Amino acid sequence: MPTDRFYPIGTPGQAWSEAERDQWRARQVRQRSYADDVLAAIDMLRSRFDVESYGELRYGNAHHVEERFPLMALRSRNWQRGLPSVLVTGGVHGYETSGVHGALRFLQAQAAGYASRVNLLVVPCVSPWGYERIQRWNFDAIDPNRAFRVDSAAQECAALMRLVAPLHGQFAAHIDLHETTDTDKTEYRPALAARDGKPFEPCSIPDGFYLVDDAENPQPAFQAALIEAVGRVTHIAPGGENNDIIGTPLVAPGVIEYAKKELGLCGSISGARYVTTTEVYPDSPRATPEQCIAAQVAAVCAALDFVLAI
């Protein structure tokens, strides 16, 4: 939709009611299969990892048939006290494809190289309903990556926090795999403004890979190591006219900072010292889908290598 026109659901200046949320749900079309793309790939890894269901999403109401999605995590088979532990999450925003498939590709192709050196907990697809609809929000029009809070209304977030809670503070690193897409500008931000009854504010989309560090716990050497590794796979996003990315000042090449806990971001849940959010740009004419997946894998491997070197 054009970004200079109001979103087709709701009334300008008024936040959505449940009626508008139902209109929005009716527009969300299932476009791919979580079972075929994700669960089948996880099944192929059962001989190498401990696979567990850490919950089940149940979404539906009087106007929409209930759907159920098992939430799956994979752990190192021989979890050893004394080894560094690393959390990898993908698909917090279900539409961010390379995050999901980057986590799976890492498990398939690279994780064996870190066996007996690192304890891994990997959640490839936090938001399966959003994955199937290629949608940022969940069924309730909640952005999961703003909802990692106590008593979260987002089922995906509450379930993931319960999974991680027993290990909180024991992780050395947490890598959360994301994308920034052109639909952030054309769909998500107009929808967000309409949902909240606020004016639409246009944004630019950076061309390239970048990272989001934690403003409350910045780790510049860690971020630099990941940027250096990913730069061998795909290009790093330059700063804009104001040396910024999506309105946030660069603190280093390809790195910005957000206050992760304050914003309710997934990167706040582990208590790890080294935390980052990856952001791949899949719509770039300079990057292929394969490069985007490879960039996510490179970031995870660089994070593990950094942890093992300290």
UniProtKB/TrEMBL annotation:
Known cofactor(s)? Zn(2+)
| PROSITE patterns hit by this protein | PEPTIDASE_M14 (PS52035)
One of its Pfam families is: AstE_AspA_cat
> What are this entry's molecular-function GO terms?
hydrolase activity, acting on ester bonds; metallocarboxypeptidase activity; zinc ion binding
Q: Which residues form the active site?
A: 262 (proton donor/acceptor)
Q: Where is the Peptidase M14 domain?
A: 30-310
Residues making up the signal peptide according to the UniProt record: none
Q: Which GO biological process annotations does it have?
A: proteolysis
Keyword list, A-Z: Hydrolase, Metal-binding, Zinc
> What family classification does the UniProt entry report for this protein?
Belongs to the peptidase M14 family.
The protein here is known as: Peptidase
